[in-house]
């Protein structure tokens, strides 16, 4: 997004948080998120409508009226207020407006999980799902098939998730799979990052030769928090090929303290 769209999104995110703070009902936030996703599905296939809703030559009131004529009686009151706030802003493109509504729908669901006391669980479930997709190449290939209808891919993933995750995790993952931005693994991982960010945390992806217990993860989170100056969420996985030690990735930075990494560096020095 360009600067104008980022500013517009920030304004509407604040508005969404204000609305949900007044009505702290889990169902309200969840329904708003799902409704916004439905609106996105419509706008994705209607270029002229995207242009009209982002027409800078029209007044904000005109754009709001158009949006409410189209969606007002089809969405919840909270979703309607968010849509009105969104079309009142100036976005760089109509596509940015739609992408902004995606982000707002996700935020509403994450706020719902927060109200339910499940935001940390949703973060972890999304991370675990990304791990599963990374291991299950056949499933990921099916979910990455751009020729397959979105409904079919969502149905496939819904069968995998049914009864195993919170409703928030399922709704977020199904939306991401149905409207891909990069690939299933990265898209689901990005959702986990968003859940962590809403808790004021950054994710440290830790790969170790053996499983880390909760105490070890807590100590590592504290140490990394001091290094990076912010709270950390540890997402741990095991890779026996490391032989020993750990490899840590925070954003684009990698700290490789694994035995395999040390051996590779020694070989490079000796070459």
UniProtKB/TrEMBL annotation:
<dbReference type="InterPro" id="IPR020781">
    <property type="entry name" value="ATPase_OSCP/d_CS"/>
</dbReference>
<keyword id="KW-0813">Transport</keyword>
<keyword id="KW-0066">ATP synthesis</keyword>
<keyword id="KW-0139">CF(1)</keyword>
<keyword id="KW-1003">Cell membrane</keyword>
<comment type="function">
    <text>This protein is part of the stalk that links CF(0) to CF(1). It either transmits conformational changes from CF(0) to CF(1) or is implicated in proton conduction.</text>
</comment>
<dbReference type="GO" id="GO:0046933">
    <property type="term" value="F:proton-transporting ATP synthase activity, rotational mechanism"/>
</dbReference>
<dbReference type="GO" id="GO:0016787">
    <property type="term" value="F:hydrolase activity"/>
</dbReference>
<protein>
    <recommendedName>
        <fullName>ATP synthase subunit delta</fullName>
    </recommendedName>
</protein>
<comment type="similarity">
    <text>Belongs to the ATPase delta chain family.</text>
</comment>
<dbReference type="GO" id="GO:0045259">
    <property type="term" value="C:proton-transporting ATP synthase complex"/>
</dbReference>
<keyword id="KW-0472">Membrane</keyword>
<dbReference type="Pfam" id="PF00213">
    <property type="entry name" value="OSCP"/>
</dbReference>
<keyword id="KW-0406">Ion transport</keyword>
<dbReference type="InterPro" id="IPR000711">
    <property type="entry name" value="ATPase_OSCP/dsu"/>
</dbReference>
<keyword id="KW-0378">Hydrolase</keyword>
<comment type="function">
    <text>F(1)F(0) ATP synthase produces ATP from ADP in the presence of a proton or sodium gradient. F-type ATPases consist of two structural domains, F(1) containing the extramembraneous catalytic core and F(0) containing the membrane proton channel, linked together by a central stalk and a peripheral stalk. During catalysis, ATP synthesis in the catalytic domain of F(1) is coupled via a rotary mechanism of the central stalk subunits to proton translocation.</text>
</comment>
<dbReference type="GO" id="GO:0005886">
    <property type="term" value="C:plasma membrane"/>
</dbReference>
<keyword id="KW-0375">Hydrogen ion transport</keyword>
